[in-house]
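Support reply, case 0932

Customer input (verbatim):
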Amino acid sequence: MTRCNAFLALHHPAALIAAESRLNNVPPSLDVDAIRDAADRESPPQSFFQLQKNSIRAVQFALRDGHQLLEIEFPPLPANVLEMDDVSAYDIAEANTKLAVDFAKGYLASSAEIMDTTSNYQITILLPDEAETNIVVKNALGGLKKPAPGIQIGSLRRSEEGDTRFFKPEQVFLSLFGGGSGGLVKPYPNTNMYIILVASAQELPDVEELHSLDPNAAIICYNLKLDTLRGDLGAPAFPGKDFHDRFLSRIKPVYYLRTRQYSRSIATAPYMVNFQGCLFRSYPGKYQTLLDTGDGRAYRRIQVDEIRPALGTFKEQLTKSLQIEGIIQEEGSLLSFLRTGYKTTTWWEDEREDAANAWRT
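Our regenerated output:
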């Protein structure tokens, strides 16, 4: 089976839904509306196992619909761990590497129920450069660059064969000064899916270059915090804002779970209200604004939107819900303006003439 035929067979609608039926022990159905309705009502996961299963299903449905540039975003470590002072970037990188390997294993395992064989399907997990790859693979995977059949670990930038240096300064130099990869970005032969880890805003153009070199392969931006990286665009030594319009806006969030914490002063005791919520989406479902009603394990749905709400809109939705419940008092228009300012969206959340709409739908 050729690489193209394997990809098409793996993501055929009937095959995906039949596999989903077997996984959940329910009769097969081709009712796409029912699938979307179920995704609209899906709750945030209660465990990493459930998260992996649901994110795999979301990716399969997105690929079935022809989307090749995808985003998966969720906290890679429990909230209490992420808040610890001694958690380093390498701890997060190692956690994301292990999660990406588990995702790839689960994806191939679920795909085995769709195809008689997945021997031709290759998933390549990429870190920015070879030095970072060597460190993370050693610490997270015991040095195994092929942790399972059909899965390999590599780097976006690769030197020529025979270059055995552990640290390669030219890879870092080109990234810092935005000079392009100089031919260091190379596709991996026979790869059907790339999973990109821990890339910075300066390294995102390498992902765009990889896509141009291997346009038939799916690319998943895995816990890259693209919302944060977009804010760096346009700064000195960073890609310009047009990079969002040209490439980042084409990346569709298929499994998206971002939590936000807020505080609001009030006129009566206890004078300060802390609240939090999450913006959640599991493709092909809509974006859900959820209010945390406990310790991050229980949420109440506030609103469902076809279009991804801006962060300012998301906060306003949570605030209005608390006002309805009487927890927060409504304020006059002047005081409300002083709290929020005249602009509640970032530049990349505004309507941009040259930007695609995939990132918000």
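We compared this against your earlier run and they match. Two observations from our side: The chain has a mean pLDDT of 82. The longest strand covers residues 252-265. Please reopen the case if you see a mismatch on your end.
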